[in-house]
């Protein structure tokens, strides 16, 4: 992360629409999450707070799905756009779109799958918005942290634990109790 990005993050942390710090889901867990949610070319995948766009790019390259990333940080968004452009060029199809915006100013109503890697506080803020917008049958897959129990608990359909989030950590640096994916169906 550059100094400018770190400074911007500090400034944003107390904003009411802040979803959480810049961090990235390990690539192996992105691949697993897309398989876990059974993402297919019929899906439209949203990542609200997409950082470098890796989830959206993988959704297109690995699963043939259309994807949309929304990111509030201009630096992260620029990286995500570059990655999206490369993926679209490779696929010769505009499957990946990235927008620089607050997730709260963007509608996710067309999404059939939403990916979330946010702290519980971020999931609580996002969860309320998604409940208003998503169509019945839409899936929400979260990495590490759950959606709020009171409003999303009954929509939880599957939980899977993984011993490692990185191939090189197969010896066990990560805790299997913590390294989880959760699947919710609206
Ligand atoms: C933990 S990272 C998740 C990154 C990505 N989804 C992944 O799994 O690799 C959270 C991201 O949300 C972004 N963010 C925070 N508040 C936001 C908001 N209101 N709208 C859009 N993005 C936001 C941060 O800049 C950061 O890139």
TrEMBL record:
Keyword match S-adenosyl-L-methionine: yes
Protein's GO biological process: methylation; regulation of mitochondrial ATP synthesis coupled proton transport
GO MF entries: protein-lysine N-methyltransferase activity
Species this chain originates from: Ostreococcus lucimarinus (strain CCE9901)
Keywords: Methyltransferase, S-adenosyl-L-methionine, Transferase
Protein name as annotated: Methyltransferase domain-containing protein
Any one Gene Ontology cellular component term annotated for this protein: mitochondrion
Region spans: Disordered: 1-24
Keyword Methyltransferase: yes
Domain of life: Eukaryota
Entry similarity comment: Belongs to the ANT/ATPSC lysine N-methyltransferase family.
Residue ranges occupied by any Methyltransferase domain in the UniProt entry: 45-136
CDD domains: AdoMet_MTases
Bias type Basic and acidic residues, positions: 1-13
């Amino acid at each position: 992360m550059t100094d400018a990005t770190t400074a911007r993050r500090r400034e944003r942390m107390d904003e009411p629409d802040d979803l959480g710090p810049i961090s990235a889901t390990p690539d192996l867990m992105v691949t697993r999450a897309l398989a876990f949610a059974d993402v297919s070319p019929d899906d439209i995948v949203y990542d609200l707070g997409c950082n470098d766009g890796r989830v959206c790019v993988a959704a297109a390259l690995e699963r043939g799905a259309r994807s949309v990333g929304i990111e509030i940080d201009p630096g992260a968004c620029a990286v995500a756009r570059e990655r999206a452009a490369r993926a679209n060029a490779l696929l010769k199809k505009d499957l990946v779109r990235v927008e620089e915006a607050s997730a709260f100013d963007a509608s996710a109503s067309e999404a059939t799958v939403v990916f979330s890697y946010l702290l519980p506080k971020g999931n609580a803020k996002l969860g309320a918005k998604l409940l208003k917008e998503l169509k019945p049958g839409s899936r929400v897959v979260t990495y590490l942290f759950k959606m709020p129990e009171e409003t999303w608990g009954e929509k939880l359909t599957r939980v899977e634990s993984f011993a490692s989030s990185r191939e090189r950590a197969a010896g066990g640096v990560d805790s299997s109790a913590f390294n989880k994916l959760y699947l919710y169906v609206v």
